[in-house]
Amino acid sequence: MDSSTASTSEESAGKIVASRSSVIQSSRVCGLSVFRINKEDLQRKLSIPKYLRHAIRDSIRSKDVNAAVDRCQEGSGGGREAAPDGPMVVFVNSKSGGRHGPELKERLQQLMGEEQVFDLSDVNPREFVDYGLVCLEKLADLGDYCAKDTRDKLRIMVAGGDGTVGWVLGSLTELHTQDRKPVPPVAVIPLGTGNDLSRSFGWGGSFPFAWKSAVKKSLLKAITGPVCHLDSWHLLVSMPSGKVVDPPHSLKPTEECSLDQGLTIEGELPEKVNCYEGVFYNYFSIGMDARVAYGFHHLRNEKPNLAQGPLSNKLIYSGYSCTQGWFVTPCTSDPSLRGLKNILRMHVKKVNCTEWEQIPVPKSVRAIVALNLHNYGSGRNPWGSPKRQYLEKKGFVEAHVDDGLLEIFGLKHGWHASFVMVELISAKHIAQAAAIRLEVRSGEWKDTYMQMDGEPWKQPMSKEYSTFVEIKRVPFQSLMVNGL
């Protein structure tokens, strides 16, 4: 983009090195190393004592922690058993991974106690936090040292896509708010389509080909890998009441709807508003990319036979995007295909700054993305790696997943996005922000489209009143296990 580029020879050499590194990493992720892991040794490291596994299971099933604790104390022998070196529970989204989910679940149950593997269609992570972990905590308070050691060492593996990982991370935030420490760190077996969260922490971008041996390696990495921090971002949508919206799973209605009062709101406010809130870890976007994602999700729901796996999903998604007016745009006939400048005002708080600053929306931009990770759109890096001189000139800092900042960039049209996705160019850098306020006003537009972490929705707009989107960092960070 605007940043200076290295010489052609340096670029070629860099690409060769990167290519070799990618092959090596893929081999490691897929379990192609000659290093073999003994199944019995791994089981000893992972398997929680049977009486604790049953207590956790019974607490979740009955939703009665006290009864499960009483039964456990009767048969546990006072917690004289030793906790394993790396106690772990696994959440499996058996609907992900091109039908590999059920086989993977069975394999995981063979490698550890059956009760340590939860199918998300049967047990959701919030139930585990509210009942399973509470059971361990109550036993620990009663003097069960094995339960205490297990609770303190516990880690969680998630087998699923980015949305599944976000679901588990979101459920664990309750431990922060209730001051129930420590919070278990999370590792990943990638089963989704993009798997950008998995890529960012060294767990690979796809379900490994040699998956039976790779699962053992992934489990060993999950209990021994270093713990990293990840920013999470709270999103609040405030819209005039009376407008009907079908929010995704990640957005929930809320009564708390107080916008930041440090920024003056132009125009009139409606007497009644509807508010939704959620948390994202990877990105939020508004505009054409969300419109394409919304259409693709509806197409896949109407024709589920098309979704046979990550590769087919990507092919269908690419083909569908060509039909949405992003590449060939009849701007005069459809106002919603024009630039976001027509409907959007953006304010941000920059690094180490408490004041809101209005940021002009570039006229040519038709999609704006606020990105937290280095990976977007199945492993692409649209922000790029700007040189130090360019960062200083723009007032930016080097991007990290735990720096308290979002990188905001724009995509102009389908051709521009295509070049960004194959990393021939960087996206249009707009800002870095510690907080974002978007004000959306319809004019000739009836709807706009938004998405966060791959979950899109159609956002209705009003001609009389604005819709606001406010994004702020959650005050505590999520914990991830690094799989490299």
Mean pLDDT: 81
CATH architecture of the largest domain: Sandwich
**C-alpha Rg, in Å?**
24 Å
Strand order of the largest sheet: 7-8-6-18-15-10-11
Domain DAGKc: 83-241
Protein name: Diacylglycerol kinase
EC number: 2.7.1.107
InterPro entries: ATP-NAD_kinase_N, DGK, Diacylglycerol_kin_accessory, Diacylglycerol_kinase_cat_dom, Diacylglycerol_kinase_pln, NAD/diacylglycerol_kinase_sf
Topology, element by element:
Elements: H1 8-29, H2 39-46, H3 50-62, H4 65-76, E1 88-92, H5 101-111, E2 117-119, H6 125-141, H7 145-153, E3 155-160, H8 162-177, E4 186-190, H9 196-200, H10 211-224, E5 227-230, E6 233-240, E7 252-253, E8 273-280, E9 283-287, H11 288-302, H12 310-321, E10 344-349, E11 357-359, E12 367-371, H13 388-394, E13 406-411, H14 414-421, E14 428-433, E15 435-440, E16 447-452, E17 455-460, E18 467-473, E19 478-481
Parallel strand pairs: 1-2, 1-3, 3-4
Antiparallel strand pairs: 5-19, 6-8, 6-18, 7-8, 9-12, 9-16, 10-11, 10-15, 12-13, 13-14, 15-18, 16-17
Helix pairs in contact: 3-4, 3-6, 4-6, 5-10, 6-7, 11-12
